[in-house]
Structures are given as structure tokens and as C-alpha cells.
Write a structure and sequence with these properties.
Elements: H1 44-63, H2 70-75, H3 80-84, H4 90-93, H5 101-122, H6 124-145, H7 154-170, H8 177-180, H9 182-197, H10 205-221, H11 238-258, H12 261-272, H13 276-289, H14 295-306, H15 310-323, H16 328-340, H17 344-357, H18 361-374, H19 377-390, H20 395-408, H21 411-424, H22 431-442, H23 446-460, H24 467-484
Length: 495
């Protein structure tokens, strides 16, 4: 053997050099993080916010804030002019109010899910900073871009979305594949919501965008790492969180009860379910707790009206108007009440009071319609002309002017105006029959005219908003029946 060939020394194999093959069904360990690990289902701040939102919604119901307009502004809604006048607190308060129960429920679901994730990701102190930054940025952009009244927690919701998108983007390498894609999923939801927000005039999309931008910006300023136990406040046990939330709930309930708001919520629910005596009882109790809660007069007044105790109903509604003489809601409610009692003069008076406070297309149109029913045709014409001047695409205004021309015998103009009202609003399909009846009568085709008047009358007989048209159609039908068959005229009746 050649002596130049060397021998390798023997290698000792130790246990730590051996790679263990995992058992079937097990996973190879890695350093990837599962996001929801140790995430608490009781995010203290968000649950407190949810409780506050529910309490304030009970307040809204019990004080009539859901009537909208001035009533909602009085509760704390966002309005550009009022903020510029120094009411800066509206930038925050508006985010804790809601327009109706559906608006509230949907927002609370998103708040809980996103808030739970954000509180877990950022810790309590950072979470609170993100929440209020989003509210302010959303309210400021909303106020800048539109002058409409705005309420809702969606600016905060989009802020949480924005912060979580940044969070998952920053830390994507630390998470397993599934959790690393959560940010993408949230971003898709945010984009879809903003897209559809531009298709609905009732959605304050600028508040959404502002909240999203606020959440993104504040999250970018936070440290680019995961929250650890050391960075967060000392952990609060689940039992203590429940105790804190229970205490907050009890305090909220006692406050709502002491102000009579719980009684008012029950009164509203009783009225909506037609338990009118209960509505009267609970609204009366609410007034004993808090005489300043004048909305109780409206609920009790409507309950009295439903029981045909009209004197008491009128008295309660007058009390509400007396206590809120600078707000249009009371005058409108009183006007509608008098209209339901066929007291058109009183309805006109209250619509006039509302117009003096805040003129609008709807108020002019309603007052003009009451004047038609009272036979004040020329005065009503000026109201409808005002309607068209304010909004030249308001279909009922053209229809009512057409009715006035039909009553005056100006059929060419009447037909043109009535047809225009249908062109502007296809839901007014029934006016086509009135237009057809006028055309047939104009051309002497009385048989077709009667047929169309009869069909129109059947469809509008019990419709409050069509009383004047119904009365005109029946009058014309009876007149044409008399022309065609005078011997049968005495038997003609309103159908």
C-alpha cells in the first residue's frame, strides 16, 4: 500500500447532531407567531365604548333625537357651522351617536371584532390613542368636505382597520402564512366599504376615509415591532375585566333610570307594538323622573291620538312645542296630527311656523297640499311654485301644480305637469291614470275618462297623501256619469 495515502480520524456522532424526524401528523416547529394566541375576548376599552354607545342610543331614543334634524344636533351630532362657531366637542361626541338601531348594531359588531384585534396588537394605551386619533381625523375631513349632519362610530372603525393594515404589513415576516394575510383581507374590506360609500348619499364616506388615514398615520408612528407583555399595561384578569364592565353597566343603568330614559325606551317600544296605555303610563313616569325630557309629551300624545283621545293628544303636543319653540320637529308633528284630524287650518299654521324656522321643499309642499284641501287654490299655487324654485326636480311639486290646473280646467297644462311628475319619479305610476282620464275627458271620450277616474280613485281612496287628487277624480267621475246617464246620477257615490 502506498504510504502517501492518509487515514481519516474516526468521527464521534453525538445526540445533538441527529435530526429528529417528526412523528406522523405533527408539525416541524418554527418561530412563526399565531396572532390570536393569548388574545382576550374581553377587550376592556372597546367593551366600555360599546356600553357607552348603547347607553347613548337609549338616550337618543328617549329624548327624540332620532327624529333627526335639530333634535339630533341637540344630542351632539357633527355639523360644520356649529363646529366653526366653537362647538369643538362635536368632533368627538358625534362618533358615539347613531341614526337608528341597524346603524348601531352593525357598527358595534365591527367595533368588537376590530377592537379586540387592535387592543391585542397594540396594547391598551396605544389602542386608545389610535381610536381617538381616528375619530378626530374622520370628523375633521367630514366637516371639511360636507355640511350635512353626521353621526356614527364608523370613523373609529376605519381607523382601527387602517392601524391593523399597517400592523400586519410591518410584522408580516413574524406571522404564519394565514395570519400574515389578515392585513390584506382587512384592506379589501375597507376598499369595498369606501367604494360603496360613494354610491349612497346617506353615508358619510369622508368620515370613513379620514378615519382610515388617521389610523394608518398613527400606526406608522408606533414602534415597528409587536407589543410584548412589557410594553403593555399590567394584565388585568378576565374576572376583573368582567367586574369593571359590570360596574360600568350598573352605573349607566342607574343614570339612565334616574333621568327617566329607561322609562322612555319602554314607552317607545310599547307604542311601536301598539300597547298604547303602557306607552302613556311609562312616558308619564319618565316626566316624573325628569320633567325636562319633553319628548315624553310627543310619545304620550301619539298614544292618546291612537286611542282617539284627541284633546289630550293635542294638549301634549302643544306642550312639546311650547318647550321647544325654536325647533321645527314639534311643529311638523303637530301639523301632521291636525292633518290626520282634517283640521287643515291648524296644520297650515304649524307648517308655517316650521317654515319660518327652516324653509324646505317638503314643508312648502305639505303646506300647499293642506291649502288645496282647504280650497285655498291660489295660495297653494304660490307654495308649489316655491317648491319648484328650490328644487326643479321635485316630482310632487309638478304633480300638485298639475292638479291645480286640472281643478281650474286648464287641461293642457295639467296633463303636461302631471306627466312631468311621473318622468321625474316613476314610483308615482298611479298619476298616469289621472293623466289618461284628463286626456280622454278633454277629447270627449267620457267613457274612457270615467274608467280611468274610477281606477285612479280605487287606488288612492285610503291614501292620506292623495286626498285632494281622490276628491277631484270622484267629482269628475260623478259629473261625467251625470252627462252620460243623468237618470243614474242620484245614485253616484264616493267609491
Amino acid at each position: 500500500m502506498d504510504s502517501d495515502i492518509g487515514l481519516e480520524e474516526a468521527v464521534v456522532i453525538t445526540r445533538d447532531m441527529i435530526v429528529e424526524i417528526p412523528a406522523k401528523g405533527s408539525e416541524i416547529k418554527n418561530n412563526k407567531i399565531t396572532f390570536e394566541k393569548n388574545m382576550s375576548p374581553f377587550p376592556l376599552f372597546i367593551l366600555a365604548v360599546i356600553l357607552l354607545n348603547i347607553s347613548l342610543f337609549a338616550f337618543e331614543i328617549s329624548t327624540g333625537a332620532l327624529l333627526g334634524g335639530d333634535a339630533l344636533l341637540q344630542a351632539g351630532a357633527l355639523k360644520r357651522e356649529l363646529v366653526l362657531q366653537g362647538e369643538y366637542w362635536r368632533l368627538i361626541s358625534s362618533s358615539f351617536l347613531h341614526g337608528d338601531s341597524t346603524h348601531l348594531y352593525s357598527n358595534l359588531i365591527f367595533l368588537y371584532i376590530l377592537g379586540m384585534a387592535a387592543e391585542h396588537a397594540f396594547g391598551l394605551k396605544r389602542m386608545i390613542l389610535i381610536y381617538f386619533t381616528a375619530i378626530l381625523s374622520g370628523s375633521l375631513l367630514s366637516m371639511t368636505m360636507n355640511s350635512a349632519i353626521s353621526v356614527g362610530a364608523s370613523d373609529a372603525i376605519f381607523g382601527l382597520m387602517g392601524a391593523l393594515i399597517v400592523y400586519f404589513r410591518k410584522n408580516r415576516q413574524l406571522f404564519n402564512l394565514r395570519d400574515g394575510n389578515i392585513g390584506i383581507f382587512i384592506a379589501i374590506i375597507a376598499v369595498i366599504q369606501i367604494f360603496f360609500g360613494f354610491t349612497d348619499a346617506h353615508i358619510d364616506n369622508y368620515a370613513h376615509i379620514g378615519g382610515l388615514l388617521g389610523g394608518v398615520m398613527i400606526a406608522l408612528l408606533l414602534k415597528n415591532k409587536l407589543s410584548t407583555k412589557e410594553e403593555q399595561l399590567p394584565r388585568i384578569s378576565g374576572l376583573r375585566k368582567i367586574a369593571i364592565l359590570f360596574s360600568l353597566a350598573v352605573i349607566s343603568f342607574i343614570w339612565l333610570l334616574g333621568q327617566g330614559y329607561i322609562n322612555m325606551v319602554i314607552a317607545e317600544l310599547s307604542f311601536s307594538n301598539k300597547y298604547f296605555n303602557n306607552a302613556i303610563s311609562y312616558s308619564s313616569s319618565a316626566l316624573k323622573f325628569n320633567p325636562r325630557n319633553t319628548y315624553a309629551y310627543i310619545v304620550r300624545g301619539k298614544a292618546y291620538a291612537a286611542l282617539n283621545q284627541n284633546d289630550k293628544a293635542e294638549q301634549d303636543m302643544e306642550r312639546y312645542v311650547a318647550a321647544n319653540h325654536n325647533q321645527i320637529e314639534g311643529y311638523i308633528i303637530l301639523a301632521k296630527f291636525f292633518s290626520s284630524q282634517d283640521n287643515y287650518a291648524a296644520a297650515i299654521k304649524n307648517y308655517s311656523e316650521a317654515i319660518a324656522i327652516k324653509p324646505s321643499v317638503g314643508l312648502y309642499n305639505s303646506r300647499g297640499y293642506m291649502k288645496i284641501l282647504l280650497g285655498e287654490y291660489e295660495d297653494s299655487r304660490s307654495d308649489f311654485q316655491e317648491v319648484i324654485k328650490i328644487d326643479n326636480k321635485y316630482a310632487p311639486g309638478y304633480g300638485n301644480l298639475g292638479l291645480l290646473d286640472a281643478i281650474a280646467g286648464s287641461y293642457d297644462s295639467a296633463i303636461k305637469l302631471i306627466d312631468k311628475s311621473y318622468e321625474l319619479d316613476h314610483s308615482l305610476k298611479v298619476v298616469k291614470e289621472l293623466s289618461a282620464a284628463l286626456q280622454a275627458e278633454q277629447h270627449g271620450d267620457y267613457s274612457s275618462a270615467v274608467k280611468n277616474y274610477e281606477s285612479f280613485s280605487k287606488k288612492t281612496k285610503n291614501e292620506k297623501g292623495w286626498q285632494a287628487e281622490y276628491q277631484f277624480a270622484v267629482k269628475q267621475m260623478n259629473m261625467l256619469n251625470a252627462k252620460n246617464n243623468p237618470s243614474h246620477f242620484p245614485s253616484a257615490q264616493l267609491i
